[in-house]
Amino acid sequence: MNGEAKMAGVLTTRGIRIHTRRRTMRGYVLDGFLLLLSFLMLAPFLWMISTSLRLPQDSFSLPPAIFPTAFNVENYGQVFKQVPFTNFILNSLEISLIIVVGHIFISSMAAFAFARITFPGRNLIFIIFLAGLMIPGQVTIIPQFILISKLGLVDTHWALILPALINPLGIFMIRQMMMTISSTYDEAAYMDGASRMWVFLRVILPMVFPAVAVTSVMTFIGNWNDFFRPLIFLNTFEKMTLPLGMTVLNGTFGSGNLSAILAGVTLSLIVPLLFYMFGQKYLVEGITAGGLKI
Amino acid sequence: MTKKSKDLLVGYLFLAPALLLFLVFIAEPVIASLILSFTKYNVITPSKFIGLDNFKAFFEDDRLGLVYWNTLKFVLILTPLHVVLGLLLALAVQRKIAKGLKYFYRTVFYFPVLATSAAVATAWSFMFNKEFGILNYFLSLFGIEGIPWMQSPNWVYLAVAIYSFWKFIGNAFLYYFIGLQNIPETLYEAAEIDGAGKLQRFMNITLPMLSPMLFFVLVTTLIGTTQIFDEPYLITGGGPGDASRSVNMYIYEIAFQKHQMGYASTVSISLFLAILAITALQFGFSKKWVSYDQE
């Protein structure tokens, strides 16, 4: 906050005071603009929620609602009655959470090997992993699909979980942070007879918490929102994730009841909202600490 | 056991799960993609080696030029949109305003990034409807009537740009916002004492200090938009006709609707090479303007 005060030119010399006054004028314009933009950003959400409460026969009628004009909660009931919406949400949660936990465990173990243990082949493997960062999803998806179908895992959650457990970006981010820790920490622990696993879990891992947190948050967001892979791998309604389930919901109500679709959309915002409330702090801390140097 | 051989064993034990998954789900698929591109394969009947036929088909494919051109349009529209507007927004919020207001803006701009993509995209596809869409309704209040968002090959790009801004601008915004907060205030104080003006301070302090974040946003946006799929698939359906069909949508169509795994691999490799070239170019160019030595 101090820095901004300085930037705004709150200093005692005369010239800068004039500067500050002019900036305030423009500041009002910017404030007005930001408030207007915020309203425009929020308006779609308001419309989604308001329309989700309309009677089905009014759902398409104009003028559109920005603020609720009716409270037909029945649309929400329809969402659960017509499609397995509870399954969609629980499947998405289950898949995203398993991926986050597995991915963090596997990535931080690999990062520990890369950052804290010296062994032949280490640097070569690290470079190969980094090269893996460059490989876009659509190059690997076709062979992955063939592999998954040969393993008989199509239309199972494993088809989504297994390939998502490996992401070189996570390994890279955690490794970068581990590299900044002084080696005296491990050495002291080894001196006391600690094992590698103990040093990893009790000494190093807690020290790279910001990197682990930001990787978790990003992994969760990425997999929660993933649409492409579920589209390819899942067919059974009951097994679908929320993003894919939205297309089912759209197909079920698309021509008749927009309100029911928007009730589903509104429900889909609950987990992201909770996640924002609890996760955004770690996201900001992690990006700050990591510095994202690529 | 000596310390060296013990380190070797322990090192590979720690690495084992990641290495195994990497080999199975990244390394092997890359090699398999290369091999597949020389074959005809529909998953059910055994694959057949067909030499360069897929590559011949690649150069004779009428739709390919169009989907590449569409993807290039997405890249050219969406990259500056996020890289520049994200920065302007971050600069506007990173002023001397109340802390609560800052948190409010951050939440409003960032929350759509988290909002379940397919769900909000579905909602937006109704908002863009020509007859009963909320957008055209509000525009009509200003005398702008019946914009064919989904029916015109040009408007469809503006529709995707508007959605993309709403959904993802918070991403670039957040990176810049954090980057700006991490610039040491002493730099500005020193510059101010030296009599540097506002523009000078921006050009000589803000931009160089922010360059790693700028570079990160630029590279990730470029790579992301080159692979664009969700937005056209969910909002425009690739239409009208093929007017907004991206390369990735086309690959999806060949591989998973027509089951031509071989030819789909050929197209995906071409997109991979394009992404590789863009990224290499960016990294080569970055040495001229990105400065990492700021501590």
TrEMBL record, chain A:
Entry-linked InterPro entries: MetI-like, MetI-like_sf
Subcellular location: Cell membrane
Top-level lineage group: Bacteria
Spans traversing the lipid bilayer: 28-49, 95-117, 124-146, 158-178, 199-221, 258-278
PROSITE patterns per UniProt: ABC_TM1
Membrane topology field: Multi-pass membrane protein
Any Pfam family hit: BPD_transp_1
Native organism taxonomy: Bacteria, Bacillati, Bacillota, Bacilli, Bacillales
Keyword Transmembrane helix belongs to the record: yes
Protein name: Carbohydrate ABC transporter permease
The keyword Chloroplast is annotated on this UniProt entry: no
One Gene Ontology term, aspect cellular component: plasma membrane
UniProtKB/TrEMBL annotation, chain B:
UniProt keywords, alphabetically: Cell membrane, Membrane, Transmembrane, Transmembrane helix, Transport
SUPFAM superfamilies (UniProt xref): MetI-like
Keyword Ribonucleoprotein: no
InterPro entries, per database record: ABC_transporter_permease, MetI-like, MetI-like_sf
Signal peptide positions (record): none
Topology in the lipid bilayer: Multi-pass membrane protein
Subcellular location field: Cell membrane
GO biological process: transmembrane transport
PROSITE patterns cross-referenced by the UniProt entry: ABC_TM1
Keyword Calcium: no
Membrane spanning residue stretches: 67-91, 103-127, 155-178, 207-229, 263-285
Start and end residues of each ABC transmembrane type-1 domain: 68-282
Single GO cellular component term: plasma membrane
Coiled coil start-end: none
Record-linked PANTHER family: ABC TRANSPORTER PERMEASE PROTEIN, INNER MEMBRANE ABC TRANSPORTER PERMEASE PROTEIN YCJO
Family statement: Belongs to the binding-protein-dependent transport system permease family.
Protein name: Sugar ABC transporter permease
